[in-house]
Amino acid sequence: xxxxxxxxxxxxxxxxxxxxxxxxxxxxxxxxxxxxxxxxxxxxxxxxxxxxxxxxxxxxxxxxxxxxxxxxxxxxxxxxxxxxxxxxxxxxxxxxxxxxxxxxxxxxxxxxxxxxxxxxxxxxxxxxxxxxxxxxxxxxxxxxxxxxxxxxxxxxxxxxxxxxxxxxxxxxxxxxxxxxxxxxxxxxxxxxxxxxxxxxxxxxxxxxxxxxxxxxxxxxxxxxxxxxxxxxxxxxxxxxxxxxxxxxxxxxxxxxxxxxxxxxxxxxxxxxxxxxxxxxxxxxxxxxxxxxxxxxxxxxxxxxxxxxxxxxxxxxxxx
Length: 319
Prior knowledge:
Elements: E1 4-10, H1 16-33, E2 37-43, E3 49-50, E4 56-57, E5 61-62, E6 71-76, H2 86-97, E7 101-106, H3 109-114, E8 122-123, H4 130-136, E9 141-142, E10 147-150, E11 153-156, H5 161-174, H6 176-185, H7 190-193, H8 202-205, H9 211-221, H10 230-236, H11 241-252, H12 256-274, H13 279-285, H14 291-302
Helix pairs in contact: 1-5, 1-6, 4-12, 5-6, 12-13, 12-14
């Protein structure tokens, strides 16, 4: 059996954990199933690439010399905007025309979406960049899943989710039994648990199991553009406003208003960082009716004005 050729296309500041999370299942698969996979590292010009932890990875070839692998995984994390250049986008389109299975990890899906090769596909990316991704690429069916495999496209949210994605892909190719064996070897038990949500659940993020508090937080997170009044938030949990405020103070040492403002400003920061919105539009999308108020509160939260999050001019995506 011919080994499937997996090419990891690396860009500066890529996520090392996502890379090795995708690579190790291939290695373990070869241990139990023979040489069913081969892999290589690719960079723009064949040079070593430094991950976000400053560890360099040597490249086997340059992107123009990639050829036709069975799977090409685009690996980025921080500074993914710098990868959205015409040579990179043209390479992604060329691979798509050759029917190569394409993937993106962490913010790697931005490259595929910008190239136009994710249009009509389900896809995911890191939860932090997801709001901007959805705004920027409405033709992509963006989800909050840990990973998505939709026909010839593989995407994952980064971090350890690359393990889940590759286990699923390997299972589809060589059977679920092999995927379970690999997961067991890697001490990775999420395969059996079936966790699909990309972001850590709110109860773990906020260290509370209080169901009424979690219902209110969920209501906040689902109503960013049109913030709910305090009375409505309390009604979501079936309690009074006074009781709601007491719960927030006792469980989270903050007020409901402060947490809601924090969530709205965080969303605005992600939209400006990963999307194409103007400062005014980002403020409106996060429930701020006044640009001056939005700018003042944003600067107070992040130490810089929202206008500091400038955009790189990008080429138009065509397939």
